[in-house]
Amino acid sequence: VQFVESGGGSVQPGGTLRLSCAASGSIYRIYALAWFRQAPGKQRELVASIEDGGRTTYADSVKGRFTISRNNVENTVYLQMNSLKPEDTAVYYCNEWLLLTPIDDYPYWGQGTQVTVSS
After folding, report:
1. pLDDT at 29 (0 to 100)
2. How many Cβ atoms sit within 10 Å of the Cβ of residue 35?
3. Other Cβ atoms closer than 10 A to 18
4. What is the side-by-side order of every strand in the sheet holding 90-96?
5. What integer pLDDT is reported at residue 4 of this predicted model?
């Protein structure tokens, strides 16, 4: 399964964006899906994850501001981002969350979607 991210853009601090991730096939049997991001000059990091049962986890930096969700019928993963901060500026990617694989060793990444938070 491959993923196509969309919904990024430029917003002011405090603004909101909703990212979407369309899968090329069924995500029903994928145990965990996640959003990652990579800021300029930094390593890619896990932002949020969601298991097939609905359990979610978030990076401390986005807790209370971001919400991840998945729709197994539409084969889509979403990331609702509220109260955006300049430090949220990054390229955002969605992918299957491979719990035992270092992020740098993931075999596939999509194009991502750029999020820029600036006044």
Report:
1. 86
2. 26
3. 14
4. 9-11, 113-117, 90-96, 32-38, 45-51, 56-58
5. 96
Query: Which CA distances in Å does 76 have to 26, 49, 71, 117, 118?
Result: 9, 13, 5, 24, 28
- Structure tokens, 54: 């609905």
| pLDDT, tens digit, 9 for 90 and up, residues 63-97 | 999 999 999 999 999 999 999 999 999 999 999 99
3-state SS, residue 20? strand
Question: Rounded to an integer, what distance in angstroms lies between the CA atom of residue 23 and that of residue 47?
Answer: 19
User: E strands within the chain?
Assistant: 3-6, 9-11, 17-23, 32-38, 45-51, 56-58, 66-71, 76-81, 90-96, 113-117
The whole-angstrom separation of Cα 27 and Cα 68 is: 15
Residue with tokens 């539409």, as numbered in its chain: 74
